[in-house]
Design goal:
Length: 284
């Protein structure tokens, strides 16, 4: 059964009436997150660099869930504000923000250029920072009005990190630094935004079945800023990592999205500033 026609079990809660922003939603984990949120009743503004992939994600979501799209590069300093504006224009509210966009550009440190290292920081920590800064005016002012009216409405921010950020990984100085940086951003905003009834948490993934963890080939690349960046993992390394995982296998995007859904749901209303590792027990 493909991700496009998975029938998710009915959750013990509803996100009906909630609206989300999900970045990196064109494929893989991001697409599965959108599908999980939609199955729970949420609407979503989704963004990605790949417009065709966005349209496929949008088409994969069953009615009556509402999904709007905005295409662009989150490493462009002006695009995060455009994402927030599009969410408010389409849904007039922001209840959930999931910062899922990312890619890896690996190399041992002596072979890592400034461009390469900064690209990893830009996509994994600077882009989430800019998006949350852009959303902060709406989130804070709306919360202040609700609190003045004696109402408590919990909103959710979920940032995506990795066991490369918590444990480090050879050949990933930039990726690991960016993923570690988003943990610091998460914990700081949890303390700044708790007064506004906003839960800010992070999910750290291990090895999940996406194009980033496909077997490495010469054809496996992604286009970023005019460059073709190799993606994938050596097949022998994939096998050894799966064998070293206590669950004995690589995780699926749907399983990864389940951990994110927890932090988007009322089940996590008294959890903030935490990092949940979704990696089948595997650590580097």
């Amino acid at each position: 059964m493909t991700a496009n026609n998975l029938a998710f079990p009915e959750p013990p809660f509803t996100l009906s009436g909630k609206s989300a922003i999900v970045t990196g939603a064109g494929r893989g984990i991001g697409r599965a997150i959108v599908q999980r949120l939609a199955a729970a009743g949420a609407s979503a503004l989704i963004c990605d660099l790949d417009g065709e992939a966005l349209r496929q994600t949008q088409a994969s979501v069953r009615a009556p869930a509402c999904v709007a799209t905005v295409q662009g590069d989150l490493m462009d300093p002006v695009f995060p504000q455009q994402v927030v504006d599009a969410a408010l224009q389409n849904f007039h509210a922001i209840d959930i923000v999931v910062n899922c966009a990312g890619f890896s550009w690996d190399g041992v440190i002596q072979k890592t250029t400034d461009e390469q290292f900064l690209a990893m920081l830009n996509i994994h920590v600077v882009a989430p920072f800019r998006l949350l800064r852009a959303a902060s005016a709406y989130l804070r002012e709306t919360a202040k009005q609700e609190i003045a009216q004696g109402r408590r409405t919990m909103r959710k921010v979920v940032n995506i990190t990795s066991i490369s950020g918590t444990d480090g990984n050879p050949g990933q100085a930039g990726y690991s630094a960016g993923k570690a940086g988003v943990i610091g951003l998460t914990k700081t905003l949890a303390k700044e935004w708790g007064r506004y009834n906003i839960n800010v948490n992070a999910v750290g993934f291990g090895l999940i079945q996406t194009r980033m963890t496909q077997p490495l080939t010469h054809e496996g690349t992604i286009s970023m800023a005019g460059r073709e960046i190799p993606i994938g993992v050596q097949p022998a390394m994939l096998d050894s990592m799966a064998a070293a995982c206590p669950l004995g296998r690589i995780g699926t995007p749907e399983e990864a999205a389940g951990a994110v859904l927890f932090f988007c749901s009322p089940l996590s209303d008294y959890v903030t500033g935490e990092v949940l590792i979704c990696g089948g027990g595997f650590h580097f």
